[in-house]
């Protein structure tokens, strides 16, 4: 049977995390690992558990996902898994965080191209890049769906989206210099939410991925053009 809490197991190195028994950060609503490894051997175990989790999630979906099977696939004792993760919801949130970090690094590579006169081409290229990630890695959609499973995972997903939106807001600043920062942050949050929702829509069974991505580009391009013009008209 899937275990969700359990007594903390002995650890190989000091545990300095500030999470509660369910994995929620005591200072926020974010679900976090019990601890993050610093020693190389523990890092390998941590990474192996995440890789096994991603494979299992893709194979069976979140409903049949169990911590016991994750540990078995990683070739590690279940106690090792619980050193790091309080339950399967924390694991999924860490996978979501992992995906977000990758996209943030990739977006940073594109930074500096706004506001060029050709920023619409930059937008098309970046959306094509993201769309390629969603088609080449099925686990991204499975992680996104799993994040909708409980109020706690959804709250963590909101935190992740806000972190990404903050990066987008900084990139939009040169394009919308007269727009108040709070308004620009709202614009960025809308952009992030729509992009993620549409990318997951694009890989649904029976859905034309290319058509969905084309519509996403139209939505984003029109939205940003209007945003740019509104900023120019401000005094």
Automatic annotation (TrEMBL):
<feature type="compositionally biased region" description="Basic and acidic residues">
    <location>
        <begin position="24"/>
        <end position="40"/>
    </location>
</feature>
<dbReference type="InterPro" id="IPR001647">
    <property type="entry name" value="HTH_TetR"/>
</dbReference>
<dbReference type="GO" id="GO:0000976">
    <property type="term" value="F:transcription cis-regulatory region binding"/>
</dbReference>
<dbReference type="Pfam" id="PF00440">
    <property type="entry name" value="TetR_N"/>
</dbReference>
<dbReference type="InterPro" id="IPR050109">
    <property type="entry name" value="HTH-type_TetR-like_transc_reg"/>
</dbReference>
<dbReference type="InterPro" id="IPR041674">
    <property type="entry name" value="TetR_C_22"/>
</dbReference>
<dbReference type="Pfam" id="PF17928">
    <property type="entry name" value="TetR_C_22"/>
</dbReference>
<dbReference type="GO" id="GO:0003700">
    <property type="term" value="F:DNA-binding transcription factor activity"/>
</dbReference>
<protein>
    <submittedName>
        <fullName>TetR family transcriptional regulator</fullName>
    </submittedName>
</protein>
<feature type="DNA-binding region" description="H-T-H motif">
    <location>
        <begin position="66"/>
        <end position="85"/>
    </location>
</feature>
<keyword id="KW-0238">DNA-binding</keyword>
<feature type="region of interest" description="Disordered">
    <location>
        <begin position="1"/>
        <end position="40"/>
    </location>
</feature>
<feature type="domain" description="HTH tetR-type">
    <location>
        <begin position="43"/>
        <end position="103"/>
    </location>
</feature>
<dbReference type="InterPro" id="IPR009057">
    <property type="entry name" value="Homeodomain-like_sf"/>
</dbReference>
